[in-house]
């Protein structure tokens, strides 16, 4: 079951009714998630950007999340704060955020405590979105294999609800920034049937979220990047498997 896609005219939906619906659904799914969503009110739900060690530039394009939060809030009444928080991968404060984002170009280094914290976060209802900004793939896959040795990343089919939450993407995640002329792909990690992590590869969605002057991204690509980002946020905060 999942909340059915919200069309672009969702601004006409009464926000309070919609938010009560989200809280009710979340309680039935996962008590951890319901506690987080129960805090929903105007500018109340914060999301996190993951800080990690190893030399990868986790901090790049700080305007990306700010622009995504603004675009999503103008489309769907999720009660999102316009300010995200930077949180260390090993911090127990991570559990305060229903949605976390990780990106970068380089290496992710983790210790056992950081991996345990990430695993606990995802098992208890958190959601992580990872966007490879080129060069992150090998170390990210190593992190997942060490954190969840019994699981594997699975490529999501184009008919997955993620691609039609608010905006329709019948051929999957869009290509925003070209590197190696490879097809963009979307992978997921499932725990007990719940999608807890989404990973986009060869897409560079977050480049499209950033201020236009940073990457000189065409406006049409920026828009579809923000639309796909909105789908991910809405799915993470409201959907069930």
What distinguishing features does this structure have?
single chain, 241 residues, alpha/beta, Rossmann fold, 7-stranded mixed sheet, 8 helices, 7 strands, 36% helix, 15% strand, disordered N terminus
Q: Can you describe this structure?
A:
The protein has 241 residues and is of the alpha/beta class. The chain has a single domain (10-238), classed as Rossmann fold (3-Layer(aba) Sandwich), CATH 3.40.50.12140. Helices cover 36% and strands 15% of the residues. It is built from 8 helices and 7 strands, in the order ααβαββαβαβββααα. It has helices at 15-29, 31-37, 63-75, 112-123, 137-147, 205-209, 212-215, 219-238; strands spanning 48-51, 85-88, 99-104, 127-132, 154-155, 185-191, 194-201. A 7-stranded mixed beta sheet has the order 2-1-3-4-7-6-5. Helix 3 (63-75) links the parallel strand 1 (48-51) and strand 2 (85-88). The longest helix has 20 residues, at 219-238. It is globular. Residues 1-42 have low confidence and may be disordered.
